[in-house]
Amino acid sequence: MLTAFGRCGDLSTAFSLADKMVDQGLSLTEDTFNFLLQACIADKEAGFRHALMVWRKLMSRHVKPTLYSFNLLLRCTKECGLGDPDVARDLLQPFVVESRLKREDAPATTSIGSVVADEESSSLVETRPNLLGHYPCLGSNLLPLAEVNTPENRLLLLGGPSGLLQVMKEMWVDPDIKTFTQLLHLIPPTLAAEKSLVEALTRSGVVVDIDFFNMLIKKRSMRGDYKNGRQVLQLIRAAKLYPDIVTFGVLALGCRTKEEAQALLRDMKEASFRVNDIILGTLLRQATYQSHFGYVLLIMETARREEVTPGPQFMEHLRKFEERAWEKLKQDDKHHSAEEVKKKDTFRKIFRMYRLRCKQWEEQVKPQTKAEHPWEQFGAKRDRKQQKQAVDL
User: Domain locations in the chain?
Assistant: First the structure.
C-alpha cells in the first residue's frame, strides 16, 4: 500500500501508513523511505522540506540509503520548494541541535576530518551547511531560509555538489550518470561550477552518456555562452561518444549568424542526420532575433528543400518577424539623417522582396496552421467509402 500511495504522490496517506508501521513494530527499510521520497516529489511547494525530514528519519534509524535514495532526493531538490521558512526552521533545528550534542560527546580521537573529508578545520566545517550526513548542520554563513527558493540554493543545504558526493562516498554509495545529470540541473549557471562538476565526474569513473553533454551545451547556450557551448564537442570526442539529433538541436541555440547555421546544417548532413522542424525553428528564432533577411530565407529554403513541414511555432516566429519589420517601417523619418533614411529605403525594398518570396514559399511547403494532436500520427486515413461503411455499421 505504501508503494502505491508513494508512487501516486499521496503524501499524507503515505506518511500515515509509515507511522502505522512504526506503531505496529514493523521495520522501516530503505525501500520504505524511497517510497516516501517519491511521495514528497508530488508536493511542489514544500516537498523539499518533507524530503529533508524523511532523510533525517532515515539517518536516525540507521538505515543505509541507496543510490536510488540520493537520486530521489536530488529530484526533490530540483522540483520542489522548501515551503514556509519558519516551519522548515522549526522542524530542522532539533536535528541540528542533537547533532551538535552528539559531536561534543564524541571521543577525543574522532576528528571532524574523519566525518567531512578535505576540511582543514572544524570552523570551516561549521560555515558549510550539510543536512545529509551523520552530523547535520545549517552552517554559519547560510542564506536565510526565506531566500532558499531556487534549486541551487536548496542544493547548498545538502552541502553543494562536493558535499553531497562526499556523503555518498562515506556511505559507500557510488553515483551514476543520473546523479551527475541532476547535479548539472542544480549547480549555478557558471563556467567554474560546470568545470568542477565535469572534473568530479571524470574522477568518479562513471560512464558518461551523450545526454549529459547535451544538457551541458543547452545550459551554456541558454545563458548566451555559445563559445563554451560549442567547446563541449571536444569533451564528447574525448569521451569517445557521437553527437545525436538532440546535440544538434541544442547547438542550434548558439547559431547567431547565417554562416554558423550553414556550418551546423553541413555537420548534420555529414553525420547522416536529417534536419527537422524543431531545429529549423530554433535557427529561425535566432535569425529573426538578429533581423537578418538572408538568414531567415536560408532557413525557409532549407525547409522547402528538405521537405520539412513547418509547424505553428515556426510560423509564429515568421509572423512576429514581420510585425517587427512593419513597426520599423512605420516609424517617423522626420528626425532621421539622410543616411538613416537611405538605410530604411533599402530595408523597405528587401522586405518587399521577402514578402513576395514568403507567399510563394507558403504555397510550396503548405505549413501547419495548428498543432497536430499527438495521437493523429497513429491514425489511418480512410476514404469516403470506408467512412460510409463505418457509419452504416
Answer: 1-102+130-138+145-172
